[in-house]
Design goal:
With 981 residues, the chain is mostly helical. Helices cover 56% and strands 1% of the residues. It has helices spanning 8-19, 29-32, 38-58, 84-97, 99-104, 126-146, 184-191, 206-250, 264-270, 280-294, 302-312, 325-348, 356-361, 398-402, 416-423, 434-443, 461-464, 492-511, 529-538, 546-556, 565-594, 599-618, 620-644, 657-669, 680-693, 699-715, 724-737, 742-755, 787-791, 800-820, 827-840, 848-863, 901-980; strands at residues 64-65, 81-82, 158-159, 162-163. Strands 1-2 form a two-stranded antiparallel sheet. It has a two-stranded antiparallel ribbon with strand order 3-4. It is flat.
């Protein structure tokens, strides 16, 4: 919709029509021819002025209006209406008139500088000045004219750019060996260097140039061939003379023996290269050989010593590039498969003929020499650079060499054919890597060394050692629970059957143990725990060799070897977790049955942790699912036990040894300091639920709870998060175990009610038998406690020694929590109930933990700052008399309310300086923009002129080239026509 007055075009047309400006194209020819000369020019200029004024009036952007904040009648504000376009145009015009001439004449001078020779020298007379100027002018003229002087007597006769004055010395001139073989034409051309038969102008034809090039090429080729022949002759001469000095270099000192060795092999061994030696060793050996041959005692010269050192020095060999992780895994898998084939071949007793093809594929194997000569004569010690083709099993059986044992040969006598079979074993010595070393160490009883060289594994010895850690287990009667799910996976029947199989396999292993050297090298990757148990039972593998089996399974099924291997390894994580929990359950069953600790079970659990940790690092999402599934199963078992009755003796409310092992695994493998974590957060919630909801009924319950508290201390060491359930459990455990009289129990109960601590198991019937009867003091112990035995203790059993051990553990954990929360602002509220409890009981009143806790509470109380009101007097709000402007209101005066006139003037001056500075900066910035535009235009003009110049030159060259080609074509046509005639 057009504004008032119509559109811009309609307004323009109406303005033009009203001002009398018409389109001259619409006028008739007669009307256009009426005016002429100066009158027509003046009319055109006036017409253009009217048009520009009309157009400028119609453009709304030619004016910039600043609307004032307050409209005051009769006030005119300077600068309220501005014309930015006109201001910019006028500024550019002023700069073209003032700044541009200064820029163009910045390097010009308007004064004359007299640079004549001697003009500024006051010591010279005018005659001397004129004489010097005359001489300088003559020199300049002579220098300019010398370039075109053809009568110069200093010309030197040259040939091919070289002066002929130096040809008097004929020693530098190479004369031909046979003049008869030289080309007469070439001799003539060389001798007649002054011209004669040559072209007088000195120009050579193309054929002469090519002839010289070919001659030079042949000459250099012949020279290279001569040098090659000379080198070959010298090499052959050295090879022929090498036999004469070989004995001096390599022969050793003869060993004085009663009789010389008659064995040809022994005689040959004396001339074998003795091994790597450099420096003094090489000198000694070479000197010994020389003295043996020549019989003189003269010292060797430095040259001979140097030659012998070079002979003994080994050459550097290029190293192969470092292999990637995938390539290393593939090599290890290939090595294990080859070793398994060799083991099966030895087990079947195959002959060497059947394995010839495999030997040929492997690049050839060592061959042993047979006969009586192999045992006679002196035997030289093996050197580092000896080849394997002279290796002998002198006096040793293959079993002793490869570490395979006596096998079926009980008498120790091994047939020679069996020795050859053992000698053909695939990587028995060549691939001496950590698996073979681990197998031998497992055979000697150290199964943990199998994981010693893994870079991505940690030291988890603090978990597995049953003697040095707090180990707690589940109830013996828990296996009869019908509604409790087994945490190791599978059903109870299958688990019990696997336990039977494991026991049977262990009995078989005792009767016929499978050593580490007889272990298979290849195993299938089990997808379930049952498959793993079947695999171990099938091969009759001893428990101490389980880590070696797991390592070989991981190596053979590395993720880079096959596409489905990563899914197999992800399933293997759950299998290893189940197997670790299986052995923890075995340890509890063994403890309950025999009363002795099952140390091997915890050692196996410890050896499985590095594999679980490594796989969890590789596949964190899948490992988290496995662990969270186990934690969820434990939570469901807890809910079922609580629903059955928290105080029921048959209700499984506390975790057993397998469950505690799982909780320890989670805290070891996953980070526990994160605020939110997919595994450790459910772990913390589950531990809190155990400590907060499970009831204390027996010694095993107390042991399980104390182990959970120790897990809390270990997991929260970095984050120091508050865990009130652990402190409440410690309060209840100490209140149940410590000896308290009636008054003490009343005080403890009132303290618990005051601080809101739940104590449902204190001073009740089912926990009465757990209280210590004597008043002997109990101290916090730092020694490891045998908690597996406490786990498996009978519920009716109330051994005072066990109760005292539990109380000492509780005191030690109280000290640990006190250290953990020492910097907390609620330290007093957290540990005051525990301090009151420890001071009330006669068993703990004299303990160091109670004294330390009381001292820390006192320090926390003294350092605490209570809330208080402000200490200073209240300051009243300042009141002032209103200030009135005596000069009247003036909106233009910015400092109207300032009564200080001098300060007002200073502020005005500062404002003016600021305004002028901003204006100067703005003008300088515009000047720089103008100069940059001018330089850009000049550069563009120079580029244009340069381009035109180059185009002109190229055009000229193209024309000349065109004419040259035309001339060449014309010459060719003339020659062709002449040839036809």
């Amino acid at each position: 919709m057009a504004k008032g007055g119509g559109s811009q075009l309609s307004q323009l047309k109406s303005k033009l029509h009203s001002s009398g400006v018409t389109d001259r194209r619409q006028l008739s020819k007669k009307s256009r021819s009426r005016k002429g000369g100066q009158d027509e020019k003046d009319a055109a200029a006036a017409r253009l002025n009217r048009i520009s004024s009309i157009v400028s009036g119609l453009n709304p952007f030619d004016q910039k209006v600043t609307k004032p904040k307050h409209e005051v009648l009769g006030r005119k504000i300077k600068g309220a209406v501005g014309r930015p376009g006109a201001a910019k145009a006028s500024g550019l015009a002023q700069r073209r008139e003032a700044l541009l001439p200064e820029l163009q004449s910045r390097n010009r001078t308007s004064t004359f500088v007299d640079r004549r020779f001697g003009e500024n020298d006051a010591n010279m007379t005018p005659e001397e000045k004129m004489l010097e100027r005359f001489a300088t002018e003559k020199q300049r003229r002579a220098a300019k004219g010398a370039a075109f002087n053809l009568n110069d007597d200093d010309d030197v006769l040259t040939h091919y750019g070289q002066s002929l004055s130096g040809l008097d010395d004929l020693a530098d001139i190479r004369l031909p060996e046979d003049d008869d073989e030289e080309d007469p034409g070439r001799l003539t051309a060389q001798d007649h260097f002054g011209g004669f038969g040559e072209n007088e102008d000195g120009e050579k034809s193309k054929a002469d140039v090519m002839r010289e090039v070919i001659a030079k090429s042949k000459f250099h080729k012949i020279e290279r061939q001569k040098m090659k022949d000379a080198d070959e002759e010298l090499r052959e001469q050295l090879d022929d003379e090498l036999a004469d000095i070989r004995g001096l270099l390599y022969e050793q000192q003869a060993v004085p023996t009663p009789a010389p060795a008659a064995d040809p092999k022994a005689k040959a061994k004396l001339s074998v290269f003795p091994g790597p030696a450099t420096g003094a060793n090489a000198t000694a050996v070479a000197g010994a050989g020389t003295s043996a041959v020549e019989g003189d005692e003269k010292p060797a010269s430095s040259y001979d010593t140097f030659v012998r050192e070079l002979a003994f020095e080994r050459r550097a060999k290029p190293q192969d590039r470092l292999k990637s992780e995938e390539e290393l895994a593939a090599d290890e898998a290939q090595r294990l498969m080859k070793a398994e084939k060799a083991r099966l071949k030895r087990m079947r007793g195959d002959s060497d003929d059947e394995g010839d093809d495999e030997d040929a594929e492997a690049g050839g194997r060592r061959k042993r020499k047979k006969g009586a000569s192999s045992t006679s004569g002196p035997k030289r010690a093996a050197q580092a650079d000896d080849l394997d083709d002279d290796f002998e099993l002198d006096g040793f059986t293959a079993g002793e060499v490869y570490g395979l044992g006596a096998g079926l040969a009980e008498s120790g006598a091994v047939d020679e054919s069996d020795d050859e079979e053992e000698d053909d074993d695939e990587d028995a010595e060549n691939d001496s890597d950590e698996d073979d070393a681990d197998g031998q160490s497992a055979a000697s009883g150290s199964a943990e060394e199998d994981e010693a060289d893994d870079d991505d594994e940690d030291d988890f010895a603090d978990l597995a050692d049953a003697d040095d850690a707090i180990q707690i287990g589940e109830d013996e009667e828990s296996e009869q629970e019908g509604d409790h799910e087994a945490i190791t996976g599978g059903t109870k029947a299958s688990s019990s059957s696997k336990v039977g199989k494991a026991s049977s396999s262990s009995s078989k292993a005792k009767s016929a143990p499978v050593t580490a050297t007889k272990l298979p090298f290849t195993f299938p990757c089990p997808a379930t725990h049952d498959e793993l148990l079947n695999l171990l039972d099938k091969h009759e593998i001893e428990p101490k060799n389980i880590p070696t089996v797991i390592k070989r399974i991981r190596t053979l099924h590395h993720a880079s070897l096959a596409e489905d291997n990563k899914y197999r390894l992800q399933a293997l994580i759950g299998v290893l977790i189940d197997h670790a929990l299986h052995w923890a359950g075995q340890a509890q069953a063994h403890q309950a049955a025999t009363g002795e600790k099952h140390k091997l079970a915890f050692a196996i659990v410890n050896s499985l942790i590095p594999h679980i940790f490594s796989l969890s690092q590789s596949y964190p999402a899948t490992a988290a699912e496995h662990f969270v599934g186990k934690l969820a199963l434990m939570q469901r078992n807890l809910s079922r036990g609580l629903a059955k009755g928290p105080t029921d003796a048959d209700a499984r409310t506390w975790p057993g040894l397998a469950e505690l092992t799982l909780l320890r695994l989670v805290g070891t493998i996953w980070p526990t300091s994160d605020k939110q974590h997919a595994v450790t957060t459910p772990l913390a919630l589950l531990v809190a639920q155990y400590l907060g909801h499970a009831r204390i009924r027996s010694v095993s319950d107390l042991a399980s709870g104390l182990f959970l508290c120790s897990l809390v201390v270990s997991n929260e060491k970095e984050s120091a998060r508050l865990f009130p359930e652990a402190l409440n459990f410690l309060f209840s455990a100490i209140a149940i175990l410590a000896s308290l009289d009636r008054q003490g129990l009343a005080k403890v109960r009132s303290t618990a009610e005051e601080y809101g601590i739940p104590t449902p198991d204190v001073d009740v019937a089912h926990s009465q038998r757990l209280r210590l009867e004597d008043d002997s003091a109990v101290e916090a112990t730092q020694q490891p406690v045998d908690l597996p035995s406490l786990i498996t203790a009978k519920k009716q059993d109330a051994d005072p020694h066990q109760r005292a051990e539990l109380l000492s553990v509780a005191l030690a954990l109280t000290a640990d929590f006190s250290t953990l929360y020492a910097g907390s602002t609620s330290y007093m509220e957290l540990f005051t109930p525990l301090s009151v409890l420890l001071s009330t009981s006669s068993s703990t009143s004299g303990s160091t933990v109670g004294a330390t806790l009381a001292r820390q509470l006192k320090m926390a109380s003294s350092s605490r700052r209570f809330l208080r009101l402000q200490a200073h007097r209240a300051i009243a709000i300042a009141s002032h008399v209103p200030k009135f402007d005596q000069q009247g209101y003036n909106p233009d005066r910015k400092s109207a309310l300032d009564p200080d006139v001098e300060r007002v003037q200073i502020q005005k001056m500062k404002a003016l300086i600021k305004k002028e500075r901003k204006g100067a900066i703005r003008e300088l910035r515009r000047d720089n923009q103008f100069i940059a535009e001018v330089r850009r235009q000049e550069q563009a003009q120079e580029d244009t002129s340069y381009k035109n110049k180059i185009n002109k030159i190229m055009s000229t060259l193209q024309v000349e080239r065109s004419e040259q080609k035309q001339l060449e074509r014309a010459k060719a046509n003339i020659k062709r026509r002449a040839g036809k005639k």
